[in-house]
Design goal:
By secondary structure, the protein is an alpha+beta fold. It contains eight helices and 25 strands. Helix content is about 20%, strand content about 20%. It is globular, with a radius of gyration of 22 Å.
Length: about 525
């Protein structure tokens, strides 16, 4: 990969964080190199949805656009309480160094960039919006609508899932496929990081994408106080590329392992690891499924990912601790992943039922996460599961569908860890975090992390929109913008001044954000 020109910023990773921050920086006039270990996906036939990936939310996917190429496009804002310390059955979810109000403008910008359809007033736990969603919520299919009405009749508040789809009130490319979850979209109608952010960034002429390129190491000056570029491998050829700003956005666990691999004399345990927090404080979602059975002969090919039940997010009348969410999914041939002897029964259930996810928050601890032996991960310790809360949420889900007149099956399986966050978390104390509230690695100028790794906790809703919002906010910081809302937990002096070390950066402090 020949270096054609000087870059202001190098971004490593092209998913929800990397793709979004590349969009922001290029639209601020900066020249950006986006490094992606995977390749561009072949669009293939445009006649149907084209590629399915069983929803393994524990491993990152290597391709341009990252895991968003196969996500369900459910873009939720974390609830206001998720930014505060919250007591759970099994421990405490930590407070963030920023509040919901600090992210609200960036949530709004991310929703417009990713064309989110939603209805804030429908969900009793939805946090305040300064503006309405950019597009109206997508109505449930008529065959699903009856179930929604029955749930409402029982006193619950099923709400439309905020979806990042090119629907635009029926005028977009979206055809409402049945398998809109864990699939690559064959119509470019899913607003993933590649479609919504990277393509428009390329159109500016200020972005170069180096796919099939592995970042071996982040480079710093000899004192280890400032980023100066990266070392990469492309087809067996190693090369060093210079830039005054490097954004690591490979996701969990790639970002933490890259920072560990980048260790040098001034940072013998890894960049950002002076306090031993690198790789630690892994969190996420404890997730499982239930299957409410439908009454018609089979489910047929209809769009099913449409509503969620968040009434139990903060707990229930009988349980004082947070429980989580119940969310419908797209149609997925999950039975193909089961032992052959179980497939006929599982397929029969799958063809006659909805798939609904139950998700509770899994809590970080100092020990949870990646434990290193030299540059390799020796073992991983999972986050703390609130097991009783998860079982209660699953039971409440089955009872809710049964009260609505729909028999419901809940497989007796232990919850899986989905939507992993942490391992390079943000915070004010370098002993307990890797990056500060601006996502800059403690004590290393020009080095940032902008992906799921920085989230101190996962809440119980999908985390992609929060990653995107934080990336936009970090992009503004790199470009020298002041924030509209000062972080009340962070000293005000950190907002002062621009960043003259950025080659070619525009001095635009105090100017209003660009429209998206």
């Amino acid at each position: 990969m020949a270096q054609a020109k000087a870059y202001d910023v190098i971004v490593v990773g092209s998913g929800a964080g990397g793709g979004t921050i590349a969009h922001r920086l290029t639209h601020e006039g900066l020249n950006v190199l986006l490094i992606e270990e995977g390749r561009w996906l072949d669009g293939g036939s445009r006649s149907r949805y084209i590629r399915h990936v069983h929803p393994d939310r524990t491993q990152p996917i290597a391709c341009v656009g990252g895991q968003t190429k196969f996500y369900g496009a459910a873009l939720y804002r974390l609830r206001e309480a998720d930014f505060e310390a919250v007591a759970h059955e099994a421990g405490v979810s930590p407070a963030w160094p920023v509040l919901y109000d600090d992210l609200e403008p960036y949530y709004d910008q991310a929703e417009r960039l990713y064309r989110v359809h939603g209805a804030a007033q429908s969900d009793p736990t939805e946090p305040p919006h300064a503006r309405a969603y950019p597009y109206a919520a997508i109505a449930a299919h008529p065959r699903i609508g009856g179930l929604v009405e029955q749930l409402v009749a029982t006193g619950l508040h099923p709400a439309p899932i905020p979806r990042a789809l090119d629907r635009r009130d029926g005028a977009g490319a979206c055809r409402m496929c049945p398998a809109c979850d864990a699939h690559q979209c064959g119509f470019d109608a899913k607003m993933d990081a590649e479609t919504a952010a990277i393509r428009p960034a390329l159109a500016t002429g200020r972005l170069k994408v180096a796919d099939g390129t592995r970042c071996l190491k982040v480079l710093t000056d000899p004192a280890g106080r400032r980023a100066r570029g990266v070392r990469v491998d492309c087809d067996g050829v190693e090369e060093e590329i210079s830039a005054g700003t490097v954004v690591v956005a490979g996701g969990v666990p790639r970002s933490a392992t890259l920072l560990r691999r980048s260790r040098m004399a001034a940072h013998p345990d890894g960049l950002g690891n002076a306090g031993g927090a690198l790789g630690r404080y892994l969190a996420g979602h404890s997730a499982g499924v239930v299957f409410p059975l439908v009454r018609w002969p089979d489910l047929a090919e209809i769009h099913t990912k449409s509503f969620s039940i968040n009434d139990y997010y903060h707990g229930s009348a009988e349980w004082p601790f947070p429980l989580g969410v119940i969310q419908t999914a797209g149609q997925m041939p999950f039975w193909t992943e089961l032992p052959r002897s179980l497939r006929p029964l599982a397929k029969a259930i799958g063809r006659h039922s909805l798939i609904c996810f139950c998700m509770s928050e899994a809590l970080p601890t100092r020990e949870s996460g990646l434990h290193f032996d030299a540059d390799a991960v020796s073992h991983i310790v999972g986050p703390t599961v609130s097991a009783v809360s998860f079982r209660r949420l699953t039971r409440l889900a089955t009872e809710a569908f049964r009260r609505a007149g729909y028999p419901c099956i809940a497989p007796p399986r232990a919850p899986q860890l989905w939507h992993q966050v942490g391992t390079a978390r943000m915070g004010l104390d370098a002993g307990e975090s890797v990056v500060d509230a601006d996502l800059q690695v403690h004590d290393i100028k020009g080095l940032y992390v902008a992906d799921a790794s920085v989230l101190p906790s996962a809440g119980a809703v999908n985390t992609s929109l929060t990653i995107m919002a934080l990336a936009l906010r970090c992009g503004d910081h790199i470009a020298g913008r002041r924030y509209a809302v000062l972080d009340r937990r962070v000293p005000a002096h950190r907002h002062a001044g621009c960043m003259p070390e950025l080659v070619g950066a525009q001095t635009i402090c105090g100017s209003p954000p660009n429209s998206i």
